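Protein Record: Sequence and Backbone Structure Tokens
======================================================
Scope: a single protein chain, as residues and as a discrete description of its fold.
Tokens: labelled as protein backbone structure tokens, with as many entries as the chain has residues.
Position: the record begins directly beneath this header, with no further notes in between.
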Amino acid sequence: MGGVGETTLKRGEASPEPLGGRVLKGRYRLVRKLATGHLGVVYLAREIGTEARVAVKVLHAKYAQDDKGVKGFRRLMLALAALSKRQRHLVRVYECDRAEDGRLFIAMEYLECRPLGDLLRQGGPLEITRALHLALQMAEGLSAVHGVGIVHTDVHPQNFLVLGEEETVKLIGFERARLKSVGPMDPLLDTQGLPRAPEYLAPEQIEEGKISPQTDIYALGVVLYQMLTGVVPFRAATPEAVRALHRHTAPTPLKALRPEIPVMVEANVLQALEKDPKWRGNTVKDVVSEFPHELAVERARGKGGPIRGLRTALQAGKDRARSLGTRYGTASWKLAGVTGLLILLAVPLGWMASARQAPEVSSAPPPQQSLNTAPRFEPASTREPGWKANEVPLLPSQDSQGRTSPEPSPPAPESTAPEVGKPAEELPPPAPTHRMAESPPNARPLGGPRGKVADTRAPDTQAPKTKADTHGGAPDPTEVIDWLLKHR
């Protein structure tokens, strides 16, 4: 299909004179008709000399009668030709000129594509990720048009073309467009009497014929509503009833029709459908401001595990903060970005907190005691049944020459717990009767602090738990964070 998106004439309407086989201005040889619409006929053409395929739209003869309108229309097409060279989401316009018989024609790129309207009629509502992916491209193209002072005025699904497996979007259908510099009520072509799809008309467009960028924002909101729910927000038996609903009735919330739609996506679409233009946002980009973040979250939810989802969400938060900086200034986006990152980090931090079953014991050393009153270390096998876990035993004290107190100590058990409150390297060497498991060189036991040796002996069910034992043999969450930072 060509890059014009024309609809077919209704039964009973006159068909224009066919031009197949003719050459326009010595540059384009018309091959065959592609589509016929209210404004003109679209042909597949070959460029003379290169044989490149081109879509040529020839307007009906009546639109070439007003010299003022023709001059303004050609100025509009010239602006689009310059813009389409650098904006990939607009159909490429090559030129606009008069044919030998005086009729206007527009030469554009030929596209193998499908109109968005056909996709919606065939498949109903789109997948959320697919809808957001297309919506971002639609908004980019429409925003570029507004940036050069053009109002499209005819935004609907048939004027968005979807190309290829990656589904690149192209905006078409500029025959009704207006230049803001000309004035909202001064048409470039006399198209006021032509029928329009009432489902995509803004309230001010219906009541007073006012045209502004907010008019396009409203129509885009209708298209996004249809993409996400499968239906337009206002439906009735007659066009007059549809127009009345646009003017006086609030649309049904999107989540009432499809609960899985993200809350922020629903809020943005409903804002675009406000009756008063000043409440719809200043630009098209305001309509899709939350879409990049929501698209990243939806894609992470469908692909990979929690680690990938967390990383994608963090990156989306970073991108969101950057977009806020563009809209609201540096100070605001920094505050919003920090707040968003803290919310995202609350999930893994909460998991880490829940994994720690026992409270950490202070690492401060015990107070100094005299040699005669120092408590003895009691092995688990000799403790009384009433021994409490919070009564932390100490190792035998030593004097300044390294001699232990004269009070005899019981024989060492097979498995003992290290002294709580001291780092592992400060503990005295184990007695010869202690047997410790050998570990391969360069191995760092899971659950132990980085660079320190953890006790690998079988745990004593009656001994107090140390920091290395509190995870039930699972890796310390801090090591998971280290690994994430190392492999990000």
